[in-house]
Amino acid sequence: MFDLWLRSGSVGIILLPFVVLYAIAALIVWLTHQSPARPYFASCVGIPGPFFASVAVLFGLFAAFLANDVQRRDTEAQAAVLREADGVRTILRISEALGETAEPVRAAAVLYAQSVLDEELPAMRRGAIADDLAALRNLGVAMLAPSFTASAPQAAQTALLDGLVEVRQARLTRMTLAGDASAPINWLATIMLGVFTQIAIAVVQLDKIRPQALALFVFTTAFATTVALIGLGERPFSGRAIDDSPLRTAIVSAARS
């Protein structure tokens, strides 16, 4: 259920919480003031206002934990792109210093970065994963080609391989985070505690319908806004825009050299 919502696009992620949670608030108002059960709820008038605070605190804590988990993944995704770009730049700078001998390595590094920008990152923004290893494989083959290893200094080869390892590890992290999401139980706990907070607000306003409706409207608006904002950032790359300018800068620097 949560997965379908998170894959519904930005408009769906924003609108659905408001529609569902306002509907729940309206149902609560109807149930406590307009339904056949009204005499029972009228007999419960007198619950003190601070009662709802205990439930609201739990909701706030769970929402904060969930938001922190989402923010952590976004931060790690951006860091992975930065490390990947740094590895590409390392390979480009060393290959440029080696001259014509390392031209195949330099060309393969540029093609790899271009493949990430043109294929992998756009696919991730659509919620898919373009796991094409051809460009990365070609980069490794260029570094290990006998014609290159026979002429390049050992120190340069080691530095290039270190750069390749950094690129591979950063790419793996990026791919892992692209398909990662918060556990459904965390979303369920946050939503359920938010609904319980709606109920707690309603039961302290059982005597008059308008104060109850207003209190529910204010909290439900904040509740839905919180859920929508967390949902927008839930999936790195497809939710929050990850800055790919470091990779573009690396390609531009290679073209100028």
Give the secondary structure arrangement, pairings included.
Elements: H1 2-6, H2 9-33, H3 38-42, H4 51-98, H5 103-125, H6 134-144, H7 146-149, H8 154-178, H9 184-203, H10 209-232, H11 245-256
Helix pairs in contact: 2-9, 2-10, 4-5, 4-8, 4-9, 4-11, 5-6, 5-11, 6-8, 9-10
Description:
By secondary structure, the chain is mostly helical. It is built from 11 helices and no strands. The chain has helices spanning 2-6, 9-33, 38-42, 51-98, 103-125, 134-144, 146-149, 154-178, 184-203, 209-232, 245-256. It is rod-shaped and about 90 Å long. The mean pLDDT is 88.
Short account of what is shown:
The chain has 257 residues and is mainly alpha-helical. It has helices spanning 2-6, 9-33, 38-42, 51-98, 103-125, 134-144, 146-149, 154-178, 184-203, 209-232, 245-256.
Features:
single chain, 257 residues, mainly alpha, 79% helix
How far apart are the first and last residues' alpha carbons, in Å? 51 Å
Helix % is over 70%
- Specify Rg, calculated over alpha carbons: 27 Å
Describe the main β-sheet briefly.
none
Overall geometry comes to rod-shaped
From the helix content, strand content and strand pairing, which structural class follows?
A: mainly alpha
Number of strands: 0
Number of helices: 11
User: Segments where pLDDT lies below 50 for 5+ residues?
Assistant: none
